[in-house]
C-alpha cells in the first residue's frame, strides 16, 4: 500500500528535545534591553512558565500533556505516503515518500505547536493570545487552537496579506479570532510606522512588534510564535517521530530528508527525530533544509547574532541571517520570507550536521504542479520547495541508478494559495535574482553583541 | 476513539445498486426527441456502454474495477468520526457521527463517481470528456479524474461562478482541464443564449446544454454528469458501504441519517446501503434528505416528468421538480441549486421510504460555524444543510432524553467557500422566502409525457 497509517494509540506521547543531544552548548539569546542573556523572568512577560522551561530544557524527552494529545488526535497521526505515481512519471530508481501535514484542520503542520502553546497558556490562567501572521498559516493554526481551549486570539496580519489573502482572514474569523491589519493604530509600534508612512503595507517584523507590545502590556495576555524558537520546533517533532514508526512498518528508512525551511519549524519537526538516531551513531540520514533562492538565509547568510524582528523588541539570537532589515522579494511562498532562521537549525548547519539548498520559484511551481497531477494533492507553495529538491534528487538517482530512499515533508495543502498557481500558469511569476546588494546592505546593521 | 478508520484493504469492492431492490419498477426516462423511452443506442452518443449498462442494471452488486479502486485508495476509506465535542457543546443525549468525504483531493464526495466515469470512458477509447459545473465541486472532481487517466477535460462553468469562484477555476486548470465560461460562443446552445442576452450570467441548464451538444457532435468526446443519474448514485454507495463496516467496528448503528440533497448523489451515496438493510427487513434507519428552503424540490415540488436542463436536450425524467425553468435564489450552497432531483431519490420519497426536510440559509451557516468551532473542520455550505438538520434532531433528543444514534454525511470541506462565511459573519446573508409564486409559474411548463 502506498499510504502508511499509524493507529491513533501509536501517536507519540513525548516530544524529542534535540537540545539534550547537541555536541556543544548553543550560544544563548541576548536581551535587546540589557545586552545580557535573557532570563526566565524576562520571558515571563509574554510566555507561560512551561514554555520557557521547554525553551531552555536539556531533558531529552518531554511528555505531551493528555489534553494536547486529545486535540492533536483530531488529525494525527498523519499519513506517510509512498509517491508511487510520481516515481513512475519520473522513472526514477529512488523511492519517494512524503509525510502529509496538510490533513490538519488549518491545512499545515502549524497546529502541532499552536495547540500546545494554547494549552500551556490556558492552564496558566491566560485569557488571550496575540500573534502575527504573514501568509496566514500560523494565524489560522493559533485561531483554531485558541478556540479549542476557549481563549481569545488576536492576530496582527501583515496588511498586504490581509487584503491579498482574504480567505485566510475569513478562516481565522470563523474560528473566533480577531484579525487586525498591521500596522494598526492600536499599538505604539503600529502608530510609529503609520506616522512615518500612512500607506505602509506592513511586514512580519512590524506585526511581531505589535503583537509583542500588546502581550507585554497586559497581564491577561501572552504572545505566541509559530516558528524559530526551541519550544516551537520541539512541538513539531511529532512529525518525525511518527515517520520513524511508519518507516519501521514498511521496513524502510530515509537516506535523504527534504523539508522547506523558513523559520525552521517544519524542517526541525521532520528532521530532528532522525538526527537523534544519527547523533547517537545509530542510523545515518542526510537532512536538507530547502529555502527560496530569493531569501537564502542558510545558503547565503551569515552565522551571527541578530534581531528577530525589525523593531528590535525580540531577543537577539545567534542564527543564520540576511540582516533583520532585509526585505525579501514578494515570493508566493510567504511562509518562507524570513530574514533569519531557527537558532538550532542554524547551529546544526554550522556544524555540518545538516545540509541546505536553495531553489527558484519557477522550479518550485513546476514541481508542485507535477506533484498535484500525479499524487492528487495540491501542495502549498512552501511545501513545493521540498518537492522540487526531492524531485531533483530522484532525477539524479535515475541517472546514477541509485536506489536511495527519499523523504520529504508535505507541510501543507495549497487550497488557500490557488491565486499563485494561476499567476504561474498565466506566466506571471518570474524568478527573482539573488538579491546580493540588498543582503550586503542589511548585513551592515547586525547588532554588536559581546558574550562577556 | 472518536475517529473510526478502515484498513485500505477493507474498501468496498462492489457498488450497491438499489435498483435491484425497489418494490416496483421505476418509470423510464423519455427521449425529448422521440417521446419514447430512451434507448441504449441513443445514450451511446454521449456515454460509454458500461455506464449505460449500470444506468439500467438490475444486478444488485456491481464490481468496482481494480483501476478505479486504485485511484479511490488515494483517499479512501474515508473516516467515520464521532462528533464528541459537538455532542458535549449541545449537551445532547444523542450520539452524533459523521462520514467525512472532504478528505478527497477535490474536497468533496464527487470524485467517487468522477474516477469511475473517467475510467470507463478511457477504456472505451474516449479521449475527451465535457461537463458543466456550477459551484465547481463537480468540475474539480472530473478534472482530477481525467488527469489520473490521462484524458482531456473541458468544463463549461456557469459564468457568474467563473468570476465569483476564481479558486475553483484555478483548481481545475491546475489539473489540466480547460475551463470555459458559459454561455460561450463555441456551441450553438451558447451562441443562442448570447444572441438573446449578450450579458447572460449563465445557468447550470445552459452549461449542461453546451457540454452535451459538444459531446454529441464529436466521436472522441463523451459527456459526464456529477449527480441525478442512477450510475452516479451507484458509484457513491462506497460512502454508505464503508460507514456500515465502521459502525460494526464500534457496535453501533444509525437510527437517523441526514445528508444534503441537490441532485441526490451525496444522499444516495450514504443512505442507499443502509436502505438495503431496511428493504430486506434487517435493520431500520430513517434517512432524511436535507434541502435548502429556497430550493425545496422534495418538500414543495411535484412528482412528475420534467426536463433535466433548461434547453430540453436531456432525457425527460420522472422526479420531484420545481419546473425546469425555475431559477432558485442565489444561495451560497451552489451545489444544491437544482430544480429537480435524482429519479431514484424521488421514487423513494414518493413511496415514503425516506424523509425530507428543508432548512434556511441562516441556520445552515450557524450550524456550520458551530461545527467548525467544535469539530475543527470547516464544512462546505452544502454539507452544513445536513449538519443543521442533525443538530436540530440532537437538540430534540436532549429535550426528550432519547439516546438516538445520528449519522450525517459531511460531503465536503469549505476551503473554497470562505467568501460565503464572510458574508454570513458580516450579516450580509439573509434567508430567502419560499419562492412560491416562481415555483407555481415554472410548474406550468412541465412537458406532456404519455407512457402509452
From TrEMBL, chains A, B:
Its EC number is 4.2.1.20. GO terms for cellular component: cytoplasm. Keywords: Amino-acid biosynthesis, Aromatic amino acid biosynthesis, Lyase, Pyridoxal phosphate, Tryptophan biosynthesis. GO terms for molecular function: L-serine hydro-lyase (adding indole, L-tryptophan-forming) activity; pyridoxal phosphate binding; tryptophan synthase activity. It holds the Pfam family PALP. Its cofactor is pyridoxal 5'-phosphate. PROSITE patterns: TRP_SYNTHASE_BETA (PS00168). Residues 75-412 form the Tryptophan synthase beta chain-like PALP domain. InterPro entries: Trp_synth_b-like, Trp_synth_b_CS, Trp_synth_beta, Trp_synth_beta/beta-like, TrpB-like_PALP, TrpB-like_PALP_sf. The keyword Lyase applies. Pathway: Amino-acid biosynthesis; L-tryptophan biosynthesis; L-tryptophan from chorismate: step 5/5. The modification N6-(pyridoxal phosphate)lysine is found at residue 110. It catalyses: (1S,2R)-1-C-(indol-3-yl)glycerol 3-phosphate + L-serine = D-glyceraldehyde 3-phosphate + L-tryptophan + H2O. CDD domains: Trp-synth_B (cd06446). Belongs to the TrpB family. The beta subunit is responsible for the synthesis of L-tryptophan from indole and L-serine. Tetramer of two alpha and two beta chains. This is Tryptophan synthase beta chain. It comes from Calditerrivibrio nitroreducens (strain DSM 19672 / NBRC 101217 / Yu37-1). The lineage of its organism: Bacteria, Pseudomonadati, Deferribacterota, Deferribacteres, Deferribacterales. The gene is trpB.
Amino acid at each position: 500500500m502506498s499510504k502508511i497509517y499509524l493507529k491513533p494509540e501509536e501517536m507519540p506521547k513525548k516530544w524529542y528535545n534535540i537540545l539534550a543531544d547537541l555536541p556543544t552548548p548553543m550560544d544563548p539569546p541576548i536581551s535587546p534591553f540589557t545586552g545580557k542573556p535573557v532570563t526566565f523572568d524576562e520571558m515571563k512577560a509574554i510566555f507561560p512558565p512551561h514554555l520557557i522551561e521547554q525553551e531552555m530544557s536539556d531533558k531529552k524527552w518531554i511528555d505531551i500533556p493528555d489534553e494536547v494529545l486529545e486535540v492533536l488526535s483530531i488529525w494525527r497521526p498523519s499519513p506517510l505516503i509512498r509517491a508511487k505515481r510520481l516515481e513512475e512519471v519520473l522513472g526514477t530508481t529512488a523511492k519517494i515518500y512524503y509525510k502529509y501535514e496538510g490533513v490538519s484542520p488549518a491545512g499545515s503542520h502549524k497546529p502541532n505547536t499552536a495547540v500546545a502553546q494554547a494549552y500551556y497558556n490556558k492552564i496558566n490562567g491566560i485569557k488571550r493570545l496575540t500573534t502575527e501572521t504573514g501568509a496566514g498559516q500560523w494565524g489560522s493554526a493559533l485561531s483554531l487552537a485558541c478556540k479549542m481551549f476557549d481563549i481569545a486570539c488576536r492576530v496582527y496580519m501583515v496588511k498586504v496579506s490581509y487584503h491579498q489573502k482574504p480567505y485566510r482572514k475569513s478562516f481565522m474569523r470563523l474560528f473566533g479570532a480577531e484579525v487586525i491589519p498591521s500596522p494598526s493604530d492600536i499599538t505604539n509600534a503600529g502608530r510609529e510606522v503609520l506616522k512615518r508612512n500612512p500607506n505602509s503595507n506592513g511586514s512580519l517584523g512590524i506585526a511581531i512588534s505589535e503583537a509583542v507590545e500588546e502581550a507585554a502590556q497586559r497581564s491577561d495576555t501572552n504572545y505566541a510564535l509559530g516558528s524559530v524558537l526551541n519550544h516551537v520546533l520541539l512541538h513539531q517533532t511529532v512529525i518525525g517521530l511518527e515517520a520513524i514508526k511508519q518507516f519501521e512498518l514498511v521496513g524502510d528508512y530515509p537516506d535523504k530528508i527534504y523539508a522547506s525551511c523558513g523559520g525552521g519549524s517544519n524542517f526541525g519537526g521532520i528532521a530532528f527525530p532522525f538526527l537523534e538516531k544519527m547523533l547517537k551513531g545509530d542510523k545515518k540520514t542526510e537532512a536538507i533544509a530547502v529555502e527560496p533562492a530569493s531569501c537564502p538565509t542558510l545558503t547565503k547568510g551569515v552565522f551571527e547574532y541578530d534581531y528577530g524582528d525589525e523593531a528590535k523588541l525580540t531577543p537577539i539570537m545567534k542564527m543564520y541571517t540576511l540582516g533583520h532589515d532585509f526585505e525579501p522579494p514578494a515570493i508566493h511562498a510567504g511562509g518562507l520570507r524570513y530574514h533569519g532562521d531557527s537558532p538550532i537549525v542554524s547551529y546544526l548547519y554550522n556544524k555540518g550536521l545538516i545540509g541546505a539548498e536553495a531553489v527558484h520559484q519557477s522550479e518550485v511551481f513546476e514541481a508542485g504542479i507535477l506533484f498535484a497531477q500525479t499524487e492528487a494533492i495540491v501542495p502549498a507553495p512552501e511545501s513545493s520547495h521540498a518537492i522540487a529538491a526531492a524531485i531533483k534528487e530522484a532525477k539524479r538517482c535515475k541517472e546514477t541508478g541509485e536506489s536511495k530512499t527519499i523523504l520529504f515533508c508535505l507541510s501543507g495543502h495549497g487550497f488557500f494559495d490557488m491565486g499563485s498557481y494561476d499567476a504561474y500558469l498565466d506566466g506571471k511569476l518570474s524568478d527573482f535574482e539573488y538579491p546580493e546588494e540588498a543582503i550586503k546592505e542589511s548585513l551592515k546593521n547586525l547588532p554588536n553583541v559581546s558574550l562577556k
